[in-house]
Design brief:
266 residues, seven-stranded parallel sheet, globular
Length: 266
């Protein structure tokens, strides 16, 4: 006799930050697995185009504007998504952006806005959806963290603080949700090629990368793809009930060394 009822055959997904990068890749990956997906982001027109493509490929998708820094927007997104697709079974909290700069020189309002997007935005989403999940005694809430929560980098502005706080919050929820049937999980990407931070000027990025090399954060030039992180999210939410993938860290594999380099057998 199983200890838990299995996941429902139909598991609607809410994705925050679905217009690009990891969020977009996750929407596609979960739709391909047969999950109805609700795509939320400020750039709703991009989400609508993605939803049309998912539906054309035989999936089920819904798009709606979402600004995780606004309580009303979060409520409107969740309400509209659940009216369209049904009560959410999976939430992927991945909304965010990235502004580079030193922790002391960054404008305090910009610093606070980064915390609002990455950390408080995730709490707004959890505050809105977790009561329903707890009532149904099942669900997956997946936080997109960052390896900077474990290995802080210089000149990442508020990103280190935001992601460290986010992962602490996700671990807190895991304890608070124990016994409810709801799983709080972290998918922690390493260096991933997305659009985040691409607006930064070369005169900012150049010195920052030099510092990263100095502190040992740039061992090789390979980056993860957004699809690699989406695969990790899919693994978390596809795990049968009764087991809980608490944390998955994904790092890019280094380029292959020539066979004659030290450490290789002849």
């Amino acid at each position: 006799m199983p200890r838990f009822e299995p996941h429902p055959a139909r598991r609607p997904v809410l994705i925050a930050g679905a217009s690009s990068g990891i969020g977009a890749a996750t929407a596609i990956a979960l739709a391909e697995l047969g999950h109805p997906v609700a795509l939320g982001a400020r750039r709703v027109e991009i989400c609508e185009t993605m939803a049309e493509k998912i539906r054309a490929d035989g999936g089920e998708a819904f798009a709606h504007r979402l600004d995780v820094t606004d309580n009303t927007s979060v409520d409107e997104f969740v309400t509209a998504a659940e009216n369209a697709l049904g009560a959410c079974e999976i939430v992927v909290s991945g909304a965010g952006d990235l502004e580079f700069g030193s922790g002391w020189a960054m404008d305090p309002e910009l610093f606070a806005s980064q915390i609002d997007v990455h950390l408080t935005g995730a709490q707004r989403l959890a505050h809105r959806v977790l009561p329903g999940m707890v009532e149904r005694q099942r669900g997956d809430f997946v936080f997109i963290g960052s390896d900077c929560a474990d290995r802080v980098r210089p000149f990442a502005g508020a990103y280190n603080a935001a992601k460290t706080g986010l992962e602490a919050y996700a671990r807190q929820l895991r304890m608070e949700l124990e016994g409810t049937g709801v799983r709080s999980s972290i998918v922690r990407p390493g260096q991933t090629l997305t659009g985040m931070g691409m607006q930064a000027k070369p005169e900012v990025v150049g010195p920052m990368l030099e510092e990263w090399v100095k502190w040992g954060f740039a061992r090789h030039p390979y980056f993860l793809r957004a699809a690699d992180i989406a695969a990790a999210v899919a693994a978390v939410v596809s795990t049968p009930r009764g087991a809980h993938l608490v944390l998955i860290e994904v790092q890019p594999e280094a380029p292959l060394r020539p066979r004659d380099e030290p450490g290789e057998e002849p």
